[in-house]
Design a protein that fits this description.
3 helices; 40% strand; 5-stranded antiparallel beta sheet; mainly beta
Length: 168
């Protein structure tokens, strides 16, 4: 029997995420990296690693944002999810997460620090349950939500996807 999105939201105690979808922090390492060992843009110590569960339903999306750390997305359950990434050269990369490598899907993808990214369930997807691991660990001080106007000005060739996956 296939589990519903509501089942996972309750079972994993997920709550609303500021960029869209539902999440719960699973892990935050006790070990920290000193600010002096990090690029100056961090400005403070960071946990070595953090991890969350993240669930997006069909009519939801994770809005374009960027963070100062690398982020690994892991597919766990449900239907295909596409993660959209804009690299420093303005290339739009589509990562297809799911459990069918024969169809060009992967169990995980890596978003490089500083790249803009967003995600949404595939066309016929009901929901996708994934995990996100961030190192150095995630801190909301490192989180920047994209402005639709500014992102479109920087990447006019990607205006359609930016308009679809921005909330401000």
């Amino acid at each position: 029997m296939r589990r519903s999105a509501d089942y996972w939201i309750q079972k994993l105690n997920l709550s609303k995420h500021p960029e869209g979808g539902s999440f719960a922090q699973v892990y935050r390492s006790d070990l920290k990296i000193a600010a002096t060992a990090l690029p100056h843009t961090f400005g403070a110590d960071r946990n070595v690693c953090t991890s969350i569960y993240f669930l997006l339903q069909q009519n939801q999306f994770s809005a374009f944002h960027r963070i100062k750390s690398d982020e690994i997305w892991h597919f766990y359950y449900g239907d295909p999810l596409t993660v959209y990434e804009i690299d420093p050269g303005a290339k739009l990369i589509q990562h297809h997460l799911s459990n069918d490598p024969g169809s060009g899907e992967s169990f995980q993808c890596i978003i490089k620090a500083g790249n803009w990214f967003a995600a949404k369930p595939g066309k016929n997807s009901e929901y996708a349950l994934v995990g996100c691991t961030v190192s150095p660990g995630f801190d909301f001080k490192d989180f920047e939500l994209a402005s639709k106007t500014e992102l479109t000005r920087a990447y006019p060739q990607h205006e359609a996807i930016i308009n679809l996956l921005c909330i401000k």
